[in-house]
Amino acid sequence: MDDLSLLFVCHGNINRSPAAHVVARACLSDDYRIESAGIKAKPGACAARKMRIAMSQRFYELGGHRASLLDEAMVDRAGLIVVMTPKYAKHIRDTYGRASVLLGHYLVPQQDRIADPGFMARNDPRIDEVADQIVEATRRLCEGLE
Question: Is the pLDDT reported for residue 15 higher than 80?
């Protein structure tokens, strides 16, 4: 385990976790190892178009992202595991015996989950809300680390 290592986890690693990953990469020094993965990811999949657009409007680029499936080596490397919902926190705990934190707990007011744009239509205004929540929460998380 590396104290300077973050792992962001969501469902498919094509929306929320890669968005948090790019925000953290922009906020933290190069000393930090930052990874993202999905518990049901299809390795090599591109970031979802709707999230690429939402994040590019916030000046973060997801164009080069390729999905990774969560595995034990990633969990072992992570100093801090950040998840999007309590369901994923339970998965991490039950499968790998590790604790994690909810990204939504860095929002004001705190939230237990960051909604999944994968279940939203491409023009759903909630996608922008999710992108804003990820940016805000990830920046706050990073402020506490630096």
Answer: yes
Average pLDDT, integer, range 76-97: 96
Given the structure tokens 């237990």, which residue do they identify?
Answer: 112
Tell me how crowded residue 59 is: count the other CB atoms within 10 A of its CB: 9
DSSP 42-106: -TTPBPPHHHHHHHHTTT---TT-B--B--HHHHHHEEEEEESSHHHHHHHHHHH----EEGGGG
Domain of 105: which CATH number?
3.40.50.2300
**Angle, CA of 134, 136 and 139, to the nearest 5°:** 100
- Counted domains in the chain: 1
Note the Cα 109 to chain centre separation in Å.
19
Over residues 128-143, the mean pLDDT reads 96
| pLDDT reported for residue 8 | 98
pLDDT for the residue 2: 59
Report yes or no: 45 and 38 within 8 Å, Cβ to Cβ: no
